[in-house]
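chain and backbone:
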Amino acid sequence: MKNVFKKPSAINDAVMHYCPGCSHGVAHRLVAEALDHYGITERTVGVAPVGCAVLMYDYFNFDVMEAPHGRAPAIATGMKRSRPDLIIFTYQGDGDLASIGLSEIVHCANRGENITVIFVNNTVYGMTGGQMAPTTLPGQQTTTSPYGRDLKSTGYPIKMAEMLANLEGTSYVSRMALDTPGNTLKARKMIFKAFEMQVKEQGFSFVELLSTCPTNWGMSPTQSIKRLQDEMIPYFPLGVFKEKETGDNF
């Protein structure tokens, strides 16, 4: 019988540690499929931040550099400029990228650094206990906003994809949710496009993935999917926000 579905070669056989219902495992697979598709795994280096994805180096079959909290774009910039032949990507959460790392990602994107960023947005700090993040929704309860996020005192959730799409240096910016098979296939296509942009030397590419966090949301995996669909998607609309035409040097 023909094998029509298998593990990407860019992922190893380690058992992932992520909580049941978490979307990180799905996101890892999509990244691995893109690297396999373009045949670039052997020259790829990932940059892991502080957060739930910090142990991503346990799951991929390529080198991963660990960065200080929020500084993954700076690390990626240095590696790409010193070794432009490598494929460099960062894999960051909202507490990392949109908070302490906000200036890093904005300036990296504005410079048009030829790297790819995978941004996993679950609206809370995951690893450190579910505190309010820059993307926490209005009225959302977290460990540091037990009565719900108050916009008067904490401001509005940051829409990273829309903000970065306005910068001249970005080549591709999109957002998709990891909630259904259909949307997961769309996310796969977006991640493929983001890495294609880097291979074709088109500049900075960015894919935001709306994710669940059942543990810190205090919900079951099924309830978390419904919350993502009912609350997150209306606030963070899905789609491609920017796509430059690619060259022919692939």
User: Anything to note?
Assistant: The chain has one domain: 24-243. Residues 181-199 form the longest helix (19 residues).
